[in-house]
Design goal:
82 residues, 80% helix
Length: 82
């Protein structure tokens, strides 16, 4: 039951994020991307701090996914704004 609640929070946060970004005017996209890059940098640091332990543990797997996806977001944000 707890997993279902976490999945619900995840889906809700995805929807809120989508509608928030979709509602932003084009003039504000660059500052918005700057803020999301800063948040992604924090996620990368947090994920790197969790990369200890066996490689097959769930914590390490999610930490690797967080580091990878946040890094993709940072690189994509810089590519779009340059």
């Amino acid at each position: 039951e707890e997993h279902v609640m976490h999945i619900g929070y995840f889906v809700l946060s995805c929807l809120i994020g989508h509608f928030t970004v979709a509602g932003v005017t084009p003039a504000l996209h660059t500052p918005l991307i700057s803020v999301t890059n800063a948040i992604s940098g924090i996620i990368v640091m947090g994920g790197m701090l969790q990369l200890s332990g066996p490689l097959h543990s769930g914590r390490v797997a999610f930490a690797l996914a967080a580091v990878f996806l946040s890094s993709v977001n940072i690189v994509g944000g810089f590519a779009v704004t340059q």
